Amino acid sequence: MDREKFFKDLSIKNGKKIILLIMDGVGGIPYNGKTALEAAEAKNLNELAKKSSCGRTVPVAIGVTPGSGPAHFSLFGYDPIKYNVGRGILEALGIDVEVAKHDVVARGNFCTIDDNKIVTDRRAGRIPTEKNREIIKLLSENIKEIDGVKITLYSGKEHRFVLKMAHPELSDKITDADPQKEGLPLKYPEPKISGEKEAFTIKIIKKFMDKAVEILKDSHPANGLLLRGFAEYPKIPSMQEIFKLNPAAIANYPMYRGLAKLVGMNVLEVGAEIDDEIETLKREWNNYDYFFVHIKKTDSYGEDGNFENKVKIIKKVDEILPEILSLKPDVIAVTGDHSTPCKMEGHSWHPNPFMIFSDYIIPDAVEKFTERECAKGILGTFNSTDILPLLLANSFKLKKFGA
Amino acid sequence: MDREKFFKDLSIKNGKKIILLIMDGVGGIPYNGKTALEAAEAKNLNELAKKSSCGRTVPVAIGVTPGSGPAHFSLFGYDPIKYNVGRGILEALGIDVEVAKHDVVARGNFCTIDDNKIVTDRRAGRIPTEKNREIIKLLSENIKEIDGVKITLYSGKEHRFVLKMAHPELSDKITDADPQKEGLPLKYPEPKISGEKEAFTIKIIKKFMDKAVEILKDSHPANGLLLRGFAEYPKIPSMQEIFKLNPAAIANYPMYRGLAKLVGMNVLEVGAEIDDEIETLKREWNNYDYFFVHIKKTDSYGEDGNFENKVKIIKKVDEILPEILSLKPDVIAVTGDHSTPCKMEGHSWHPNPFMIFSDYIIPDAVEKFTERECAKGILGTFNSTDILPLLLANSFKLKKFGA
Questions:
Q1: Of A89, A186, B31, B218, which sits most exposed with the smallest number of CB within 10 A?
Q2: Is there a domain that residue B401 lies in?
Q3: B239 Cβ neighbours under 8 A, 6+ residues apart
Q4: Best mutation site among B32, B56, B74, B349 for testing chain A: the one with the most A CBs within 10 Å?
Q5: Domain co-membership, A383 together with A256
């Protein structure tokens, strides 16, 4: 089944409104006996669960822990394996770099090399971010273009940076410029397929690397560089095109704004706090028919193993839920992109608790919006890619298939 | 996985007997708090549910509302997207038109045209069915054949009719003969692919349309015609071939008799009532090993939004269930093809309640044959295409796969 063609044929536009409320990494496993959702005793979320159809969503496949990219592509209705965008793109999106058609981006590390260009520290002693900015400024002033290819550099944290090259004849079908371990010399990329674009791209990168090393010769420990995850701007049919939606993203972290943009969402102006996101939702309510609302900090505190603060963020979302519901969306779903158990201090493979509410759902026996309660829900366990079809169905945005 | 080859290799013939009891559109969503199945308190269905393995079945895909065609192909074990038969075929089956190899059928509308052949009413003022019959008689008497192609016309309701053309050199790879909206002139079909068959088919249809308009010149408001959904007789491997069954269909509505015939079922003589269907089942019990028993009116009353009568039909089925069980089938499954909630007055995407009983199932904790109870069943939520393999397994008609 060609999923995109299938839904493109079935989807229609109407005035009904959808909210997808994502608490990033909200799911977890017990930590002293309770998950963060269980400990939060979130009154409004639980009230909504009582009226909703509930279940559990699998982001990519059973047992598979997804990164933010695949987890969100699933949420947006796209096959996360087909659209596994390059790491360079996600790194760029994560520091708010605009990536466009004809751009190739890579994530870079400053590293330490000796006189024979042997890599002695792949992270250049994790130089302070301040120092990183100085070096990027120096390089940017000295390298603006190579053989007609525009070069732009962006500072990340500590030793990390992003390289962006702009030219219509570039390719991302090249290997990492990275010897993989210390004790080996700096390495140029190699073509993955043999073609003119690949040869041209590699020529540019060699010149760039040589020039950069020359400029950095007195910048020890950050006197060398590694480049990884070369990636072109991915060609992804938009949500407008496939699902006929006029979608908006409300997210205050660059990575998620970037992911939303990749599928054609209108990324709205928003402040840094959860309250700001709700403010934006209210302000823009009349302008779009699909709102992706992204809460980041459930994931951040999960990654930190900070159970108490993860619970606090859930309570904060619980507090603002009535304001969201007061907009009277035709359908609302609440879930996570993936689980981030505090006990594991990282993403995990555990399915997300899920609930959907509209005038056309069957309320089930679930009493609380938690991992273990939602597992009793009428929807069972299903793939996150099926969330969007469910949202469209409940807002009458899918025609009947066949007669 | 080539599903058809897979099951063709595994399936075997034996004497065991299967009943698939379909209550069309039986599933629903609450209507004043209860679904029709919940309101029916169907004693015998609930008794069977207690002894059965239960679950929920998804006809095509999560969120997708199926028409009767795809919903039944799934029930019969076929991929409903691969075998999405043309609208013309279903329209023909719906009014009991025999469609055979080398036939191309289309559904037609009589419409109103002005002197310049501009369509002014796409439905010819919804002429009475009586009038339709007169016009079809007139046309049939005057157009029997065009350039060796046999032409047959069948009256539908109001302004609708079916055109059947019979000739080995016809194609259905042509567009609708339909300007789509009023204010535009009558339109001939165009080829979707460029070939001799398409050119020949279009030549015939042009001549037919011109001739018909000439004949209808005094039949205002039904003085023009639109033709849509051209479709050849679909090539579908039979249930005999793939599943080694000797299948029978007991259905008293033309569309379902037609669908069953498309997959090779023997369509049995039957009266108009549910009791007649049970009579036929008993009479033919020794002659087949698979019985598709189709109850139409759960869907009809769902479409009408007539909750009370939908409940009555469920009670009627409940009443005759013991007679069915008294035949002692080796395996029986009860479900719907798709849901038809009274609240929505139409098909919906909600999965069907499902139960299967044999000597080899695991009874679960489900107490009632309802949407919400079956959701707690041991089978979980699965695709309708997997019902047939389950029926075959429970009647020992599938060999072990691999050693």
A1: B218
A2: no
A3: B76, B77, B245, B247, B263, B264, B265, B290
A4: B349
A5: yes
pTM for the whole structure: 0.90
- Report, in angstroms and rounded to the nearest whole number, the Rg of chain B calculated over CA atoms: 23
Distance from CA of A2 to the nearest CA of B (A): 10
Q: Does residue B294 share a domain with residue B274?
A: yes
Q: How much is the pLDDT for B339?
A: 98
Question: How far off is chain B from A334, nearest CA to CA, in Å?
Answer: 17
pLDDT digits (tens, 9 = 90+) for A264-302: 999 999 999 999 999 999 999 999 999 999 999 999 999
Cβ B91–A6 below 8 Å, yes or no? Answer: no
Closest CA relative to residue B70, chosen from B400, B337, B387, B383:
B337
A386/B349 touch (CB, cutoff 8 Å), yes or no: no
Q: Are residues A227 and A374 in the same domain?
A: no
Query: By CA distance, what is B82's nearest residue in A?
Result: A1
Q: Give the structural domain span for A320.
A: 3-84+236-394
Question: Got the DSSP string for B108-148?
Answer: EEEEEE-TT-BEEETTGGG--HHHHHHHHHHHHHH-SEETT
Q: Quick check: helix, strand or coil at residue A37? A: helix
Does residue B399 form part of some domain? no
Q: Name every chain A residue with its beta carbon within 8 A of the beta carbon of B87.
A: 403
- Any A CB within 8 A of B381 CB: yes
Give the gap in angstroms from C-alpha A394 to the nearest C-alpha of chain B: 8
Query: How many Å is the Cα radius of gyration of chain A?
Result: 23
Q: Are the beta carbons of B67 and A403 separated by less than 8 Å?
A: yes
> What is d(CA A312, CA B124) in angstroms, rounded to the nearest whole number?
65
The predicted complex's ipTM stands at 0.89
The chain A residue lying nearest B81, using CA atoms, is A1
Each residue's pLDDT tens digit, B297-341: 999 999 999 999 999 999 999 999 999 999 999 999 999 999 999
| In chain A, residues 206-245 whose CB comes closer than 8 Å to chain B | none
Is residue B207 domain-shared with residue B268, that is, in the same domain?
no
**Residue A172 domain-assigned (yes or no):** yes
Q: Do A361 and B29 touch (CB under 8 A)?
A: yes
Domain of residue B182, CATH code: 3.30.70.1430
Domain count, chain B: 2
Q: Are residues B214 and B131 in the same domain?
A: yes
Question: Which pLDDT score, from 0 to 100, does residue B146 have?
Answer: 97
